[in-house]
Design goal:
The structure holds 2 protein chains of 2 kinds. Chain A has helices at residues 2-29, 33-38, 44-54, 60-72, 86-121, 126-140, 143-157, 182-215, 218-225, 230-268, 273-282, 286-314, 316-321, and strands at 170-172, 175-177. Chain A is mostly helical. Chain A has a two-stranded antiparallel sheet with strand order 1-2. The two termini of chain A are 15 Å apart. Chain B has helices at residues 2-9, 12-19, 21-38, 40-43, 84-120, 122-137, 140-155, 157-162, 164-192, 195-202, 207-218, 220-243, 255-263, 272-299. The chains are: A mainly alpha, B mainly alpha.
Chain lengths: 324, 306
Amino acid sequence: MFAFAIRRISQAIIVMLIIGLLGFSVKHQIGDPVRDIVGVSVSVAERDALRDQLGLNDPFLVQYVRFVKNALHGDLGMSFFFKKPALDVILAKAPATIELVLVSSLIIIFMSIPLGIYTALYPRRLFSRIVMGSSIVGVSIPVFLTAILLIYLFSVELHWLPSYGRGQTVNLWGWETGFLTLDGLKHLVLPSIALSSIMLPLFIRLIRSEMMEVLETEYVKFAWAKGLSPQRVWFIHAFKNTLLPVITVGGVQLGILIAFTILTETVFQWQGMGFMFLEAVERSDTSLLVAYIIVVGALFVVVNTVVDVVYGLVNPTVRITGRK
Amino acid sequence: MKQRWKRFKQSYLFYNFKRDKVAVVSFTILAIMIVLSVVAPLIAPYNPYDTSAIDVMDAEIPPSWMEGGESRFVLGTDIQGRDLLSTMLYGMRLSVIIGCGAVLLQAFLGIVIGMLAGYVGGKIDAFLMRMADVQLSFSTLMVAILISAIFQLAFGVGRYEELAIPLLVVIIGLAEWPQYARTVRASVLGEKKKEYVEAARVIGLSSTRIRWRHILPNTMSPVLVISTIQVANAVMSEAALSFLGLGMPVTKPSLGSLINSGFEYIFSGSWWITLFPGVLLVIFVLVINLLGDFLRDTLNPKLYKG
């Protein structure tokens, strides 16, 4: 187990170095750190002096090593627009995105498990057919369209819920949270529903197919033969074993939710990382863009590594062969 | 040709297709939409790219059956005064072109890489598949957004918009090749061990010939299944990128950029600019997904899970 964990972690480090290399070459080719620091009103000679001083004339590899060293100290460069360290800007925006992803995942988990089990147990009932039918329609609707339709229905027509922003937030030990005020919670409803709409159908289908597969296995038949109650067979024997694939796929999919936050946050003007990223692209804020790539890259790598290691703990065959 | 058609008519695929109402209906809708987008310049009442024919005074006219609607604009007009029906037809045309182009590119990349990984195996296989895993774990949408953001910074907004169609094909192709490569690799691994491959090797055929003439045709059914679904995915990615302003510009709108331009005006009640292109996009993606489901159930290839 230990060797397996070490192998996965070293792979994760290699991936991070490659992401860093990609990010750095973007910065190297497109960005101009001198502009980021001094603006336009400084003479060419002074710029050149600054260039030398910053080590921008050093070979590519030397600069890359320096970049990695700085990154390890938490220095990802200065944001041109905000005039602040890029990492600080991102960390200030992170709570909004994390809260959004958290609420969406809760919606997904608490909706998909009952629906998935129900449709697996009673595949021929009308309700199951409706669920399965709407899930394929749900997969085909882009998340931004869901979001727009929700806004049109609930804010423009019915005036029930606010359409953009985070509403009133409370500062809790440096963490701007919207959970503690009614206004903040109201603002969370539409974005989190829109964000969960993209993954919910996938999860329902996944749980349904895994559950149906497990219900066909020998040990479930044996449990029936022993005369156990249906609830016990369904939830204790069968459901437990559907969780394994659900956790692995689920962990990766929740990471993918971060990609979709860019779309959701744009529609709802949600002041999170995704919204900030698009603004950075519009403002050609290269340092901030690269910092975002690295932070999000690290997030993905960490999530995937943790999921793999946990999976290795639960399912020994993975760590023996070392392959999926 | 006639022979082939006859053989196709007697095939298992066609037999199932005739009996599956959902598949027939979705195929019909898809065929109509593709024909409409191919002949869009001929049938569209106006040319949305012709700036001299557009009048800003016509902006935001509601659909013809509503109050204030005009009969010359059946589905109303968008914010720039373009006829919405014509703009949607041209937009669908762009979505179809970009979707198919991107799928061709990723099919090329995926088949070459998947074949290499599956047939050669060993270290190359481990490296390529690890790369695919890593890229997939970032989600194709994220990769597409990041690449397009970098391209836009590198090319500048103006130049990016000029080159938007080929760039989007490249972006989406690069972002989505791993799914292809995995599928091809998995079925190459399955075919490689079969006796006909051994037989081909025994009679002394070159490995290139075995790969491309013997194994490849037998991996085609999973490729066919995944291709349909990938077209839907590519169209969705294109719409998402255009919605974010990283795709087609407003002067040459695809369905995604139309939705985006209409979104700003939804608060003033102009819902049609967003809704009609949105519905068209959803129907297009939905029928492709339904067809993909049908193909998967019928051909039943062993698809790589995940």
